[in-house]
Design goal:
The protein is 63% helix and 0% strand. With 174 residues, it is mainly α. It is elongated. Pfam families: NDUFB10.
């Protein structure tokens, strides 16, 4: 029944069970254990947590992006330097993820431009379309045909073969 301020119009029937107020000389054990838990466990833990939060609020650390130091490329690693190989592989994977996000952002910008411009998308979104074309070509040149399991070594070999083909094509022109 909804709350109503007109008590005379909607009188609430009296409750059938009377409220029992037991007053005994023996305290309730539940209340005793709740009080002991509150003072022995809860209060110290709450105090320590609030103290830590006060200390942390003094030294605010704003985390935006994790910055990794650049490591040598795989071509700069010495033979048998497995730690360098591992770091170069991790750096290559991070670079690949960044390049994927760049392509995705440019693609989203082109989609937003097309949505915004409507029928005039071809002339008003030409810069975004050209930028997407350049970015996807650069991504395809570097990471294309590597597949999901591509790594830094296969990418380096792909770039080496592409450079050799470009060199041969330049010599054939002369």
């Amino acid at each position: 029944m909804p709350e109503d301020h007109e008590w005379e119009a909607y009188k609430v029937p009296p409750t059938r069970t009377p409220v029992v107020e037991s007053t005994t000389s023996v305290p309730n054990p539940v209340n005793f254990f709740q009080t002991v838990f509150s003072y022995v466990l809860d209060a110290p833990v709450t105090f320590v947590r609030e103290w830590i939060e006060r200390q942390q609020s003094k030294n605010k650390f704003y985390y935006y992006h994790q910055k990794f130091r650049r490591v040598p490329d795989l071509s700069e690693c010495l033979e048998g330097d497995y730690l360098c190989f591992f770091e170069a592989e991790a750096q290559w994977r991070r670079d690949r993820m960044v390049d994927q996000e760049i392509v995705e952002i440019v693609r989203e910008r082109l989609g937003a431009c097309k949505q915004r411009e409507g029928p005039n998308e071809f002339q008003n979104c030409a810069k975004e379309a050209e930028l997407l074309k350049q970015v996807t070509k650069a991504y395809q040149d570097r990471y294309g045909d590597l597949g999901y399991h591509g790594n830094a070594r296969t990418c380096l070999m792909k770039q080496k073969h592409r450079m050799m083909e470009e060199r041969k094509a330049a010599q054939a022109k002369q």
